[in-house]
Amino acid sequence: MSMFLDTAKIKVKAGNGGDGMVAFRREKYVPNGGPWGGDGGRGGNVVFVVDEGLRTLMDFRYNRHFKAQSGEKGMTKGMHGRGAEDLIVHVPQGTTVRDAETGKILTDLIENGQKFVVAHGGRGGRGNIRFATPKNPAPEISENGEPGQERELQLELKILADVGLVGFPSVGKSTLLSVITSAKPKIGAYHFTTIVPNLGMVRTQSGESFAVADLPGLIEGASQGVGLGTQFLRHIERTRVILHVIDMSASEGRDPYEDYLAINKELESYNLRLMERPQIIVANKMDMPESAENLKVFKEKLVANYDEFDELPQIFPISSLTKQGLSTLLDATAELLDKTPEFLLYDESEMEEEAYYGFDEDAPAFEISRDDDAAWVLSGDKLEKLFTMTNFDREEAVMKFARQLRGMGVDEALRARGAKDGDLVRIGKFEFEFVD
């Protein structure tokens, strides 16, 4: 089984806030001590942290649920509950985090040590010391803790490489990577020897260095799922320069120029923006007898079919086996990298707007619908959060919640919809009768 995993779907749940406490000061020489219940502690966040030691998302293969601790409950003597520690989840460099429900990108984690809060913990509920007023100096009201954020995430790893090696299977990409870096990719005389991306660092004779990724071989129809399909095409997206490796010996009976067109078509079909990346054509296997003549024909076809307004890609004849032409190729690649800026992976429409963790003033406070049993159903983020944070074990808290509903206009809205005295009203699984 391959130990490389570059996609994963997980669920994260931040910690709930601790419940506030109802307590009263009762000391021998302190008459009318008043309320003394403290607030609950804040729930823990779920935080992603980039770890440069990780190379895959394999850690998420079997562990798909991440839940932070809840805050402690408030205590007597006005003491606050302890806030929970954040849950730290380590991810590899190059991890894109996407909300599975909306499809929007939350963050792109590329720097070692970079942190991002993917789920925010709930605030602690207030204790009864917070509700004391001159009219009600000894309230028996406290709040439950705010629920922590819960969401499903899609993780996608796109390895960090400056240069990507693309081409048909068995054109010599893995061999090339093995001779220009210290990487040890699997090499074999059959198709799809490489089934996972391999990464290596190149240092040129002039002292320049860059990262190169050998990507599993593409074939015609890959963008529609043929062969390894688009499984690893995502890793090309971070590269700034593409080395297009072609078997110029035509050892498998294919035409080198047709190979060149077919691979570019697959790149374009997967993501049109990949064609913005400058390409260097690597004419490999030049130690073979037919290669020189095939290269001459290849250049003629390339010039004949190229748009006169476009710049022709550079062509470097090499032999990975004899190491012919490698230093020239690497120097040219380093030079092209120096003048090629990084490409924007995502546009604004794909990114989730900065989240606001509170009540959205523009959003409707509640919605009313009708259930199959003719009960009125109240829903809405603001209303449901107020409901969750209400301590229904305390009569004063229940009355406060009823006043909040009235203040939000729920009573008037139900009357306008035709609700009558005694009708059943439901919030989640909680039911009560409407009193007109």
Automatic annotation (TrEMBL):
Molecular function GO terms recorded: GTP binding; GTPase activity; magnesium ion binding
EC number(s) per entry: 3.6.5.-
Obg domain: residues covered: 2-160
Co-factor requirement: Mg(2+)
Subcellular location: Cytoplasm
Binding residues for GTP: 167-174, 192-196, 214-217, 284-287, 319-321
Gene3D superfamilies noted in UniProt: GTP-binding protein OBG, C-terminal domain, GTP1/OBG domain, P-loop containing nucleotide triphosphate hydrolases
Record keywords: Cytoplasm, GTP-binding, Hydrolase, Magnesium, Metal-binding, Nucleotide-binding
SUPFAM superfamilies registered for this protein in UniProt: Obg GTP-binding protein C-terminal domain (SSF102741), Obg GTP-binding protein N-terminal domain (SSF82051), P-loop containing nucleoside triphosphate hydrolases (SSF52540)
Family recorded in the similarity comment: Belongs to the TRAFAC class OBG-HflX-like GTPase superfamily. OBG GTPase family.
Protein name: GTPase Obg
